[in-house]
Design goal:
The complex is a heterodimer. By secondary structure, chain A is of the alpha+beta class. Chain A has a single domain (about 1-150), classed as Sufe protein. Chain: A (Alpha-Beta Complex). Chain A is about 35% helix and about 20% strand. Chain A is built from five helices and four strands, in the order αβββααααβ. Chain A has helices at about 10-15, 65-80, 85-95, 105-110, 125-140, and strands spanning about 30-35, 40-50, 55-60, 150. Chain A has a four-stranded mixed β-sheet, with helices on one face. The model of chain A has no long low-confidence stretch (mean pLDDT about 90). Chain B contains 15 helices and 17 strands. Chain B is an alpha/beta fold. The radius of gyration of chain B is 22 Å and the shape is globular. Chain B has helices at about 5-10, 20-25, 50-65, 75-90, 105-120, 140-150, 170-175, 195-205, 225-230, 255-260, 295-310, 310-330, 355-365, 380-385, 400-419, and strands at about 30, 35, 40, 100-105, 130, 155, 180-185, 210-215, 230-235, 245-250, 270, 275-280, 335-340, 345-350, 370, 370-375, 390-395. In chain B, α5 (about 105-120) packs parallel to α6 (about 140-150) and α13 (about 355-365) crosses α15. Chain B has two domains: about 5-40 and about 310-419, Aspartate Aminotransferase, domain 1, CATH 3.90.1150.10; about 55-310, 3-Layer(aba) Sandwich (Aspartate Aminotransferase, domain 2). Chain B has a seven-stranded mixed β-sheet with strand order 4-10-9-8-7-5-6, sandwiched between helices. Chain B has a four-stranded antiparallel β-sheet with strand order 13-14-17-16, with helices on one face. Classes of the chains: A alpha+beta, B alpha/beta. Bound molecules: pyridoxal-5'-phosphate. Pyridoxal-5'-phosphate (PLP) binds next to α5 of chain B.
Chain lengths: ~150, ~425
Amino acid sequence: MADSRSLYEQVILDHNKKPRNFGKIENADAEIEGFNPLCGDHFTIYVKMEGDRIREVAFDGAGCAISKSSASIMTTTLKGKTIEEAKKIFEAFHQMVTSAPDAEFDADALGKLQVFSGVREYPVRIKCATLAWHALVAALEGQTEEPVTTE
Amino acid sequence: MAVDTLEQAESSTLSLDVEAVRRDFPILSRTVHGKPIVYLDNAATSQTPIPVIDTIRRYYLEENSNVHRGVHFLSQVATEKYEAARRRIATFLNSPVGCEVIFTRGTTDGINLVAQTYGRQHVGAGDEVLVSHLEHHSNIVPWQMLCEEKGARLRVIPINDRGEIIMESLDGLLTGKTKILALAHVSNALGTVNPVKEIIARAHERDIPVLLDGAQSAPHMPIDLKDLGADFFACSGHKMYGPTGIGILHGRAKVLNAMPPYQGGGDMIMSVSFEKTTFNSLPYKFEAGTPNIEGVIALGAAVDYLEHLGMDNIAAHERDLVAYATEALREVKGLTIIGTAKAKAGVISFVMESAHPHDIGQILDDEGVAIRVGHHCAQPVMARFGIPATARASFAAYNTRDEIDALVRALHKVNEVFG
Ligand SMILES: Cc1ncc(COP(=O)(O)O)c(C=O)c1O
């Protein structure tokens, strides 16, 4: 029986209420919008780099609890990581949320991001969980002209 | 308050025995996540009563055959049932003399038919097509595509903060350039009932034809097309206790006859040679190919069912539910109703301070309460109110005040989780 308490972990509710790194970074090296037209989630991600390392990452905008907390936890996870490390973490994260509910995942690589494993029971929420990530990866790859959309 | 007082509404619902109605819809007795289902997503798709399910079953057990083609027994039975459904639907809509019922796949298909035939014939460069700010995407996009193709302009009747059409703006928008007005009878996103009779009359004073999108009106109130005078009326079977994939387009024979066909194929022709094809007469000219026979016959049964309940009774019952829900939702902390028109049908859209509509819908689902969340295919309405999405509860004849209480309890849970 599905019960969305498995989706809305306490950590998720906490980040939804008090998002970390929430706000604009002035003079960001990259700035990109992520947009989910289906539910209207809309975020801007800001990144400041130091060489190939993410020195600062922040976001603003609005969306559901899953998309907002995912953006928030993403920023706390990726601060100080290299582009390569960030992409690896995203891969592990993406793989986890799109896998079958009983599939194993790389707990070590994911750390706190494991709280999103409940998303696997709710396929329509995968886009919510990955929206900010898709936008950030596009920003890291220098694709900041067009907003990233989930559709 | 936006609707009748509760006492008035209560006294008018006595003629609908809701418990009996509920027994006609077996799906309502199932559970979801271990809870009794509370189905409040009727504006998206309504549930199907036993008489309609039985009609489909009987069709495949005893009547299945192609229509208008065979001399054999089954084909004649299928054809007779198919055409009988058409006559019943015409009566249901109080179709005036000289009008035709055409079967489509649904409202969207009906609107596209008109845009692609009447529209392409009459709309040219510099002309205007008029819609309202309340429209469903299916009454915007076909016209936008047409305008793009023809170099015409899509114009929009504005709405006020209650979600009502601003009638004063009509004079400036119904002009010599306006070739057609396409308008929702009832808004699916807000529930607003538009004063369509007056608007149609105003358009007709200037010889502007009107297409009414009846997707949200046909299931919920008596439709009198003789009285309304709409040139085209489109609706969908799956919102009126019928099956999916079937809908109605109603129009005047004179206009329909002058329109080019929509699609070519079998059934829509009188004779075909490689040199020339003569098109069939109405309504067949617009029903190319083997139609959704099962769907038409079942829609006939759905219309019988609606009439058996009585459209006035359904409207009164749903008015009561809207009045009751509007009151009950006040109890929920941080909840704001979007769309507070004076005339409102069985739809309540709302937002909450504590939670995004997506999260509201998720928590409600745990409780077995089915609502729709999102933009409801009406992004311009969302933009008008400066919100990305709403949560929407929409009612049907089988919904009860108890179910609204269940909705309210579930919304308190939303506040517990996210507050
Ligand atoms: C007002 C309105 N118009 C048009 C439609 C489209 O109907 P359908 O999807 O059945 O073609 C809907 C259904 O959502 C609607 O509510």
